[in-house]
Amino acid sequence: MLEASYWVEKLGLLPHPEGGFYKENYRSGLTINVENGRERFPNGRSFSTGIYYLLEKGDFSAFHRIKSDEMWHFYAGDPLEIYFFDAGGLLQRIKLGKNPEAGEYFQAVVPANSWFASRPASGSSYSLVGCTVAPGFDFQDFEMAEKEHLLKEFPGNSEIILQLTR
Asked: Are 75 and 165 in contact (CB under 8 A)?
């Protein structure tokens, strides 16, 4: 198996503010400006964006949320766990990977406005994935979670919140 450093160099990945490495590899030239989306996206958004994203063992993508749906795609390395709080406040766990017999999925969606985080699964050295966001990602839609806020909002999930916040 290739090392994480190979992908960082080969794909030109850069450090991401939430942890790991990334590179935007697609941004639609078309813009969404819809009346019913003005409150969420007052300046419009690209139809869609895509990135490569890599996390190594011991690193994680800290709990955060964005205003769009985000589809995750597994590419290489070992399985990745994605955690998010659904609309009912229940913690969900999805395992991205290449082994459906082990409950792994090639793709998964995190709904818009959900607090979510990810990390390489136990025993993983790294995970190379992709993320497609629609309407497209913009850092003005990115909100990093405050540990104390999440602990109050989801008191029964303190262990995972403490593990996946900075």
From this structure: no
